[in-house]
Write a structure and sequence with these properties.
The complex is a heterodimer of chains A (391) and B (216).
Chain A: H1 6-14, E1 25-26, H2 31-38, H3 45-49, H4 52-88, E2 92-94, E3 101-105, E4 108-111, E5 115-121, E6 127-134, H5 139-144, H6 151-169, E7 174-177, H7 184-192, H8 197-203, H9 205-228, E8 233-237, E9 241-242, E10 245-246, H10 250-270, E11 274-279, H11 287-293, E12 297-300, H12 309-316, E13 321-326, H13 338-352, E14 358-362, H14 371-384
Parallel strand pairs in A: 1-2, 2-7, 7-8, 8-11, 11-12, 12-13, 13-14
Antiparallel strand pairs in A: 3-4, 4-5, 5-6, 9-10
Helix pairs in contact in A: 2-4, 6-9, 9-10, 13-14
Chain B: H1 3-13, H2 20-29, H3 34-54, H4 60-79, E1 90-96, H5 104-115, E2 118-122, H6 129-139, E3 143-147, H7 154-166, E4 174-178, H8 184-190, E5 194-195, H9 199-210
Helix pairs in contact in B: 1-2, 1-3, 3-4, 4-5, 5-9, 6-7
The chains are: A alpha/beta (391), B alpha/beta (216).
């Protein structure tokens, strides 16, 4: 079979058509790994943001500084992470463009959709964030929340970013566009608190609907902007499950989110693009629901959860593209041996590649994954993923 | 079981938080003591919820809704108890280990433990081993639940176990772990007493501990 471009290889895989080899995907590279690939930036961001003047200004004018300082800085950091993925030669990347953040003070960052995160150092000179808690705990706080995102403004920035990224790198890799943080359920869990979100659904349905209206609008507008900029695959994250199963019953997921996701996905399909849903945990009982919504690809199948990726291939492999397979808990960590990665790649290709609709990659966004382990995975995929699939 | 107790039990199972107050009051009006209502209606209801969760009929959201009903019921009933009545099952320290700030799973475990009659001392997230040891010493708690989501934080679990041993507390304090990066093999490797795969499993584990340990 003739050699294909990464974009052709990936898009044909989504359509279940023959490809020259199994594509290899990168699941959103962390700054630490990007620095390994591209070299460390001159100034460590964590130290820079911890300087007394930076702390002073952010503590005093955090929200006001967001458009002029924080947003461009964040965009630059995230762009490096995308460049790191492109540089490594993946067939597909989860581009990270995350434009709904606001600094509240030097140690606090919020999603404008209403959740609060700590700003912390990753221990390698970079800034990262960890969820702290809900930003909205009452209906009064919901009504008074001052930071709701302007979907049109976010979409314009997303368009400008992807236009540039596609024009410079669109031939090198298939860019999975990602425009803001979180999906409908996940954002609701963060904003109201996971242990309160079900109570909000029951007690404050009108507020929940208003919240989901905001999320649906921003989803559709950012996706449209990305596709107008040339993105062919849209990726959205929504962690519907945890280690042992879904947060909500399939019936509740369908009733609260079903129609909204159908509209979101129809919008993507209407412009000829593919839609990938990333959902962590064991989604075994939700895969039929997701496929019913029209997803083209599903990512995660975390090996540390109870999901069985091989069983899913047999059940749904003819209708949806399975993305993932390589664990980050051990295989893509410093603790593994390279031969173990190669063996796992061979096993995944042997079991998942026949019949198509399989893109190999890490099972999760890559927390603490060293670049050289990713390189081993890419090389093994190229060596053993060529058609016909090597035994 | 009387109709009124049955109604409380069913309200827990059916997650009817808007009705639980009046149903509990009806039991009290019939002459049941607060402890009887908990033991004969609330606890059996929670047990059914746990079974349904483990059988896959209920989901985490259902646990949360049922937990809210139980919290309301036990809150009302405790206000009406005499001093010394309805002693807690014991103190449990919960903490997300040093370096890890994930809170959600631990909070759900804490909610279910509290609803099941434990006194929960939640130390929060990113908790240093020294603080966990000191809390075990000062509160006399005989059970610790450690949460860890990040694979890179397993060393923090080991540190807690080592510090507890150095402090001479390990013999009298049981330790359980849970969270995305945890497994039975990790529990074995770390030398802790149990691994809980879910919030319901955590309650069962601590119920098991209370049969074998003495609180100060």
């Amino acid at each position: 079979m003739e050699s294909m471009s990464p974009v052709e290889r990936v898009l044909r895989t989504f359509e279940g058509k023959p490809v020259d080899r199994v594509p290899c995907f990168c699941a959103m590279m962390e700054s630490r790994t990007a620095n390994e690939v591209l070299g460390r930036p001159l100034l460590p961001m964590d130290k820079l943001m911890d300087l007394p003047p930076a702390r002073f200004f952010l503590n005093k004018w955090g929200p006001a500084l967001t458009p002029v300082f924080v947003r461009p800085t964040l965009a630059s950091v995230l762009h490096r992470r995308n460049l790191g993925q492109i540089e490594m030669g993946f067939d597909a990347i989860w581009a990270y463009m995350d434009d709904t953040w606001i600094f509240l003070d030097a140690k606090t960052i919020a999603l404008t959709t209403g959740s609060i995160f700590n700003v912390i150092s990753d221990g390698y000179g970079n800034l990262t964030y960890m969820y702290r808690g809900p930003g909205i705990t009452t209906t009064e706080e919901f009504d008074a929340w001052p930071h709701w995102p302007d979907a049109d403004a976010v979409a314009q920035r997303v368009y400008r970013y992807y236009k540039k990224l596609i024009s410079r790198h669109g031939e090198k890799t298939c860019i999975f566009g990602y425009g803001f943080f979180g999906g409908l359920q996940e954002a609701m869990n963060w904003t109201f608190g996971i242990d309160r979100a079900p109570l909000w659904i029951r007690r404050h349905p009108a507020h929940v609907e208003r919240f989901l209206d905001i999320l649906e609008e921003i989803s559709i507008k950012t996706h449209t902007a990305m596709m107008d900029a040339g993105v062919r695959v849209v990726l959205q994250t929504d962690d519907f499950a945890y280690k042992t199963g879904p947060f909500m019953s399939p019936a509740m997921v369908e009733s609260v989110f079903g129609e909204r996701y159908r509209r979101i996905i129809r919008n993507v399909h209407g412009r000829g693009a593919k839609y990938v849903l990333h959902s962590c945990g064991d989604n075994t009982r939700l895969f039929d629901t997701f496929i019913g919504w029209g997803v083209d690809g599903l990512h995660a199948y975390e090996n540390t959860s109870n999901v069985d990726i091989y069983k899913e291939k047999k059940l749904h492999g003819d209708r949806v593209t399975i993305i993932g397979g390589v664990g980050i808990d051990y295989l893509l960590s410093e603790r593994s041996r390279d031969e173990e990665i190669v063996e796992k790649v061979k096993e995944l290709i042997a079991k998942l590649a026949p019949g198509g609709r399989f893109i190999l990659g890490p099972v999760h966004s890559e927390d603490g994954v060293p670049a050289h382990k990713l390189a081993v995975m890419i090389e093994a995929a190229r060596t053993y993923g060529a058609r016909p699939v090597s035994p | 079981m009387s109709d009124s107790l049955e109604a409380v039990r069913d309200a827990v199972v059916e997650m009817r938080d808007e009705e639980i107050s009046s149903l509990v009051l009806a039991c009290l009006d019939e002459g049941y003591s607060p402890v009887e209502v908990i033991e004969k209606a609330v606890a059996p209801g929670l047990e059914i919820v746990g079974h349904k969760f483990e059988n896959g009929d209920f989901f985490l959201a259902d646990l949360i809704l049922a937990g809210e009903v139980v919290t309301q019921a036990t809150g009302m009933l405790k206000e009406r108890m005499s001093p010394g009545e309805g002693a807690e099952k014991g103190k449990v320290i919960l903490a997300t280990v040093r370096g890890d700030v994930h809170d959600i799973g631990k909070r759900v475990v804490g909610m279910l433990l509290a609803a099941s009659g434990y006194e929960v001392i939640d130390l929060g997230i990113d908790v240093p081993a020294e603080k966990i040891v000191e809390t075990a010493r000062t509160t006399g708690a005989a059970m610790i639940g450690l949460s860890a989501l990040l694979t890179t934080m397993v060393g923090s679990i080991r540190e807690v176990v080592e510090r507890m041993t150095e402090a001479g507390l390990r013999e009298r304090v049981k330790i359980a772990i849970g969270g995305a990066c945890c497994s039975q093999s990790l529990a074995d490797e770390m030398g802790v007493d149990a691994y809980g795969e879910s919030a319901v499993a955590a309650v069962r584990i601590f119920d098991g501990f209370t049969g074998v340990v003495n609180t100060d």
